[in-house]
Fold this sequence. Notes:
alpha/beta, Rossmann fold, 40% helix, magnesium ion binding, 2-succinyl-5-enolpyruvyl-6-hydroxy-3-cyclohexene-1-carboxylic-acid synthase activity
Amino acid sequence: xxxxxxxxxxxxxxxxxxxxxxxxxxxxxxxxxxxxxxxxxxxxxxxxxxxxxxxxxxxxxxxxxxxxxxxxxxxxxxxxxxxxxxxxxxxxxxxxxxxxxxxxxxxxxxxxxxxxxxxxxxxxxxxxxxxxxxxxxxxxxxxxxxxxxxxxxxxxxxxxxxxxxxxxxxxxxxxxxxxxxxxxxxxxxxxxxxxxxxxxxxxxxxxxxxxxxxxxxxxxxxxxxxxxxxxxxxxxxxxxxxxxxxxxxxxxxxxxxxxxxxxxxxxxxxxxxxxxxxxxxxxxxxxxxxxxxxxxxxxxxxxxxxxxxxxxxxxxxxxxxxxxxxxxxxxxxxxxxxxxxxxxxxxxxxxxxxxxxxxxxxxxxxxxxxxxxxxxxxxxxxxxxxxxxxxxxxxxxxxxxxxxxxxxxxxxxxxxxxxxxxxxxxxxxxxxxxxxxxxxxxxxxxxxxxxxxxxxxxxxxxxxxxxxxxxxxxxxxxxxxxxxxxxxxxxxxxxxxxxxxxxxxxxxxxxxxxxxxxxxxxxxxxxxxxxxxxxxxxxxxxxxxxxxxxxxxxxxxxxxxxxxxxxxxxxxxxxxxxxxx
Length: 581
């Protein structure tokens, strides 16, 4: 049997378990893994030279496919470069499978090149870390490798999904002889059957009793993938029971005249009287992290009497508002559908009427606040004779997005501006953002990975610092033609000019902001992208239809703005929040 047979069998097991995509960063120690995936016809293999970028490309692919994507890299510092993407995947609950080649452990601390302590290198930011045996001659080694890889694939997908690390020590020779055939042997697949999460009848009775005892009920949706089933369930609850449903742009609710989406504007500079009118008795939360500080601050300062968080198979207590009373282990969509059915049945049996009560007044208060917030933003963005700003540019882009496309929002100001603008539900846009750790380090790479995984258009809105930080995303592989990059270039880290604290310090520039003087023209040319430049609002209006039209190349639109005009506009917005609507 060839000495590298366990590596060949490991890769075949990936295919048998339904994995289709691999991202490889070239290296010598990892050669057996690379050759095994390259020669397996069941895998799509993409090459990214920069491991940090490769990690985020794989994350973007796994976001859309909801299946594990495999990452392969060589030993040493290459492994550490995966860490930012691994941390983001862990907190965003994205399945990744990390195969890191390693030196045999006896060579650690022996001045051997590219040798670091890789066992457990990602710490608590992976669901589990495996270290495979380095010697393949014993039958127990084959058994251990098969069992560990089966377990790792399963674990990456078990709720909550996330990254799993497999460290693979490999001895020389790394490369097969010319006459050696890479052919899988007998590969054992260990199937794990999912359990169905069901709440008991007694539990449902208790929940319904608490619902009945609560006059003012509110549902808050954190970051969540676009789901028509979720939207239907939330719409039914809101319409039938006068329950406000709140969510930011990353919740994928969309504006429809029913859901409350201008939360950041609503909850800034509230009086105690206004806050009291919006305070719920029962708060039900689903989804992952929230984008803005205002939402978190409001529910901490004005806590609900009861707070339920609905999460399938919770592995820890998420008590973000410090008032959690129930952690409900259930799939949110199934929970809401069952809730609707039970409430409808209960209403029918009790012969309850639909006369307005306190819950209707509560619902109306949130609706009125949302409408006033929308008017404030609209008024600000439609003021005559104003220059093109980051905010107005983002607003124009969002209104022109093709229906049924994907939107990737980079961190820092782009995701915040998009949240202030919002999207219409009938646009049916799937919104994605790296809000697990919320770093700028892989936003461009994530969008490239997402575009590789779909035929639909993927639009990334990104700031200049995040773009230039991550432009290796455009280096290694052909950039997919369905990618559109909207680069908002204000020549600085604009967020530090706006947030309280650094914006008032004399050291703002250059210690917080990062002026650079770069444009993306040459980067676009090097990557083979169609490049557009824009400085005026009217120019942007005329460019967008061409920019979003199908083409045989990816496109980059660079919008140049003035950071001082951006700052002045945002200051006017903040000042307007203390005035009558």
